[in-house]
């Protein structure tokens, strides 16, 4: 399992949430990240999901 980091921000740059979670693959992490954003009603906020290697898997401005 690998550890991924999800962050979401307000338009002002203030951080709304920062979460880490584990997933077996980048695809699984994208699904988990999208689900977390949806649960917290943050899908339309600026957000990013980064892999342990620093690759952006989800990004929205």
Summary tags:
alpha+beta, 4 strands, single chain, 61 residues, globular
Structure description:
This protein is an alpha+beta fold. It has one domain (2-60). The chain contains 1 helix and 4 strands; from the N terminus they run E-E-H-E-E. The protein has one helix at 26-39; strands at residues 2-9, 15-23, 46-50, 56-60. Strands 2-1-3-4 form a 4-stranded antiparallel β-sheet, with helices on one face. Strand 3 and strand 4 form a beta hairpin. The longest helix is centred in the middle third of the chain and has 14 residues, at 26-39. The radius of gyration is 11 Å and the shape is globular. It starts with a strand and ends with a strand. The model has no long low-confidence stretch (mean pLDDT 96). This is YhzD family protein. It holds the Pfam family YhzD.
The tally of structural domains comes to: 1
* Rg measurement, Å: 11 Å
Low-confidence stretches: none
Tally the helices.
Answer: 1
**H and E order:** EEHEE
Into which percentage range does the β-strand content fall? 35-45%
The end-to-end distance, rounded to whole angstroms, is 28 Å
Mean pLDDT: 96
Organism: Sporosarcina contaminans
Pfam families: YhzD
Protein name: YhzD family protein
């Amino acid at each position: 399992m690998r550890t991924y980091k999800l962050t979401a921000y307000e338009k002002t740059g203030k951080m709304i949430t920062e979460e880490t979670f584990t997933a077996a693959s980048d695809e699984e992490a994208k699904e988990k990240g999208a689900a977390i954003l949806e649960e917290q009603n943050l899908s339309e906020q600026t957000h990013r999901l980064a892999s342990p290697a620093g690759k952006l898997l989800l990004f929205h401005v």
